[in-house]
Amino acid sequence: MISRCCRGPDTRSFAYDLGKRVGPGNRVGTELGEGYATVCTSQAGRESWERGFLRGYAAVLRDLGMPGGYAESSARKALTSLARLGGAAGSYQLQDLFHQGEHVGRLCLGRSADGRTGFVHDVGVEKKHQGRGHGRVLLQVAENHAASTGNTDMALTVSTENTRATNLYRATGFSRTSVHLMRQLVQMP
Question: What pTM did the predictor assign?
């Protein structure tokens, strides 16, 4: 955590890192519930997710005050780093969640190079299916995947403004591990 002395009046937190332990002694359960199924995302779905990731991440960066071109470049670098983390074995993977045959959400997973930490890079429930518990199921999929691949921990990052997601993550056992801060720098003429 950042101490108070490092925070000036123009510094604000914009994201939290959250984490939790996974594994046989820490899992709540492995069953997803009746009517649920997961499949690896198709190539078309992957391309669609990547376009959405680039748009969404660049928009977040612009909202934080980053100039447009730099925000887009930073988003492309972030997507490239997801594909590189840990080499081929550590590349991100996308899982689609279906409930009673209908697509309800998607999950992007990765892991650290040392194999100890599974990362939840993205959790998305389609708008018409939100508020029905599908986000919890996606997190259970992530936890099951992390534990089955030998991870001992799980981590994710969430925007401070995304209180709905933060509440979901905390309700499923995640706790804050660090805070990301940002300070707007004065531009020289």
Answer: 0.80
